[in-house]
Request: fold
Amino acid sequence: MSQTPTDPTRIFALDPTTKGFGYAVLETPFHLIDWGLAHISGEKVSGAVARFEALLDQCRPDVVVLEDSAAPGSRRRPRVRKLLGKLQETARERGIAVHAIPRLAVIECFSSPDKRATKFSITEHLAETFPELAPKMPKRRKIYQSEDERIATFDALALAVTYAMK
Reply:
């Protein structure tokens, strides 16, 4: 069955964390299907790839969206860059299109002409747009606090929305 422009496109977006990854599954136009955090124990790369494959089987996306770790402005460490590469390879082996979105493109997508978006303002916008995520929204962090792991779900959703807005 071929896909026509009126058929929904299922987007699977993922954002790695130190403990695993956050993910969001979005069906265009802007219908949130699934989201969550995948905690990985043991060897991070192989564990993350195995969990990613299970989610691909479960969600059956048309497109996988990841952060472009090679783009200017990316602060991703070598381990995460390696993981993102493995995830791209895994999705492509399954015949799923993969798109890498630079972090700066996400910021630009959520910025207004008079105000540059921040991680927190993007999270607020997404919680308003997708009310089912509002209870999961972390509080604004203090400068001395580590980032709440739940932000990875919002970062993944921001990647998916940025892709869908293209």
Confidence is low (pLDDT under 50) at residues 1-6.
